[in-house]
Amino acid sequence: MQELTHYIGGAHVKGTSGRFADVYNPATGEVQAKVPLANKAEMERAVEIAAKAQVAWAAVNPQRRARVMMKFVDLLNRDMDKLAEALSREHGKTLPDAAGDVQRGLEVVEYCIGAPQMLKGDYTDSAGPGIDMYSMKQALGVTAGITPFNFPAMIPMWMFAPAIVCGNAFILKPSERDPSVPLMLAELMEEAGLPKGILQVVNGDKEAVDAILYDDTIQSVGFVGSTPIAEYIYGTGCSQGKRVQCFGGAKNHMIIMPDADMDQAADALVGAGYGAAGERCMAISVAVPVGEDTADRLIEALVPRVEALKVGPYTSGNDVDYGPVVTAAAKSNIERLVQTGIDQGAKLVVDGRDFSLQGYEDGFFVGAHLFDNVTKDMDIYKHEIFGPVLSTVRAQTYEEAIGLAMDHEYGNGTAIFTRDGDTARDFANRINIGMVGVNVPIPVPLAYHTFGGWKKSMFGDLNQHGPDAFKFYTRTKTVTSRWPSGIKEGGEFSIPVME
Ligand code: NAD
């Protein structure tokens, strides 16, 4: 059994707390490693090292810091297959999807190569008589991030790349479900030229998270995960005087108008609903066809597609559409919610409950489920299922459809499928959700835009990556300066005498 480590001060360090969590291979259900769960003392040691290293790193000019990112991009490309394999083995997602996870992180690293431009300050010449005014963006110091299991490469990179290129040190507390890729990323950053102690990985659970939240040296906390934990971290972190941004759960609606191309909409829904076994914060989990006829045509198009989905281990390569869910607990939670859907009167038109895969009976596989006639009061509509379960809520009008998405407590992503520009424009303007797709089911913004939901999907002011990240990871200081007249007034040639 492999014993994983922390990565502290530029070295793999064994856990000393005596507490460990099991890391599974979700495809087989076997425990493949144990990960140490840090205590307060271990976190304090990492913070102390980070604080010392950060001073010199902030003094390195931005161009040189950007060069580390350039080299890191090369190394990510070099090791892409290795990273994807390690990621799939612990997470369960397919290899192409795992490579996408790395790639979407890599693109933010590429964006960070523009740090010299992003970190340039403002200057006003002659703001008053002989007075100049300038602003500079300075690093915060030691920063920290707490990340979820579902994107173990992308989300850590979304946080640590901008934090580090701005001159901060960063402590990553990754998910205890799939900690290997974060450890590999820390090694690669050092191979790229990052000084020791600037990026450290401290594995753990709530105890490590609380050690971050109550540490006086750590200046900022980034979090991505479920909404209850996001609320806890936001509230606690803010009360401790930290800068905090927390991204939470989701229930993303896709509205299908009567004029939509139904084959296109159904293809989009299958990918967005069932890809990565539905374990994406931008997954579509609610389909809202407008009008009974649209709903009937949609269900007719969806059923064969959902039934044809191929579920299996990542080792089956391209023959698989999605893999297992992350843990046995996640699987039984999904099964429990599916049962509530049936009990509360939804119509299960594709029933994945009997799914079983020969040779992988102990894996955490969940068959694809499709519900029709879901209503607002049902648990499967109210809660994030985070599994391969798509709910269809039939709306009679466009207003009813947009109202559903607007009234839901989550506001991460949404999409509309239509051929009508006016409807699409109205939807994009009125909807109270952070990321909107028009005939695009998973509208994840690219690295140079920013990522973030609204309502209970986001706590804080600034989004992830793009220009917001450079604001989150720096403080602005504004200097007003006046210089008294000096040497330019000319030399003094007579011997000074007392008046
Ligand atoms: P999670 O909330 O269980 O865990 C996230 C992190 O918080 C992990 O590092 C975990 O160790 C830590 N944590 C767990 N319980 C804690 C506690 N009681 N106190 C302190 N820390 C704790 O989330 P998850 O299951 O890893 O990820 C899935 C969730 O993340 C889903 O809700 C999904 O929608 C959300 N997510 C959101 C986004 C986004 O950008 N909005 C992106 C990805 C995932």
Describe this structure in words.
This protein has 499 residues and is an alpha/beta fold. The chain has 16 helices and 23 strands. It has helices spanning 40-59, 62-78, 80-91, 95-112, 115-118, 154-165, 180-191, 206-213, 227-239, 262-274, 292-307, 328-343, 379-382, 398-407, 421-430, 467-472, and strands spanning 2-3, 6-8, 11-13, 20-25, 30-36, 122-128, 131-139, 142-146, 169-173, 199-201, 218-224, 243-247, 252-256, 284-289, 347-350, 369-372, 389-392, 410-411, 413-417, 435-438, 454-455, 458-459, 474-482. The protein has a 7-stranded mixed β-sheet, sandwiched between helices. Strands 10-9-8-11-12-22 form a 6-stranded mixed β-sheet, sandwiched between helices. A 3-stranded mixed β-sheet has the order 1-5-4, with helices on one face. A hairpin with a 2-residue loop joins strand 6 (122-128) and strand 7 (131-139). Helix 2 (62-78) runs antiparallel to helix 4, helix 2 packs across helix 7 (180-191) and helix 10 packs across helix 11 (292-307). It is globular, with a radius of gyration of 26 Å. The model has no long low-confidence stretch (mean pLDDT 97). It binds nicotinamide-adenine-dinucleotide (NAD). Nicotinamide-adenine-dinucleotide binds at residues 146-151, 173, 175-176, 205-206, 209, 224-226, 229, 232, 247-250, 281, 384, 386, 412, 453, 457. The site of nicotinamide-adenine-dinucleotide (NAD) has 27 residues, from helix 8 and helix 9.
